[in-house]
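User: Oxidoreductase. Structure?
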Amino acid sequence: MPAPWLLPHTHPTASGDVRWNVLGDPGGPPVVLLHGTPFSSYVWRAVARTLAARGHRVFVWDMPGYGQSAQYEGQDVSLGAQGRVFAELLAHWDLPGPPAVVAHDFGGATALRAHLLHGAAYRRLALVDPVALAPWGSPFFRLVRENADVFARLPPHLHAALVREYLVSASSPGLHPAVAEQLAAPWLGPVGQGAFYRQIAQADQRWTDEIEPRYGELSLPVRILWGEDDTWIPLERGQALAARIPGASLVPVPGAGHLVQEDAPAELAGALLEFLTEDGGGGTTTTA
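Assistant: Predicted structure:
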């Protein structure tokens, strides 16, 4: 039976309590993993344990409104709020030096906003299929965002089916049913159903429009990893993003869709370990 994914620590924020955990050697170099939407830190479990086993001190957390963190009516779970919360959480951890940051999907925008707008310092930054360049949002995502109040009133069984199908569509080979259930669980029930549509309703492109002109200011090592079979955000967007960030390199991940952590965890962990331990961290853009 797989080990449970627990976040035993709590940090209060203006957007509700954030649940977090740390794995690995207390003296190891710090690495922080950020999840995207509609996911949680659960998607990082294999990668987090691999990095921790290789000597890193790995921090994981669920954004407000997601996973094991607080969910409530009227909650601000926008990218604007998430960037501020992440900068605050880094200050709370009081790390001995800037961490390496690995961010997926909306977590990418969160990490970029915290760095560019809120002064969060990173040693290096890995972006995994990030939300970063306009336009973003699939036709389904936009439909839900424009009609969030209607979708929030779906009968629970229809909502549950929609959430599961949406989650599975992020994977190229498909998710194991047990994994799909774990990812869907925070979005079910009266509280979870409202939270699911709340975070989509607040997903405004203006949060990335605000920072997109500043990507050329990034002066730290940046690695961009992208599932070759990503149907949510195609590989071409990764190529465009790499061209906007000085010295950034792009590493396509074969056989993986948007949810690279589930589709190719070993390949992703290997690429991250290489990036986290190399002298540089930049390089030329590759399109294998």
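Confidence is low (pLDDT under 50) at residues 280-288. The first helix runs from residue 45 to 53.
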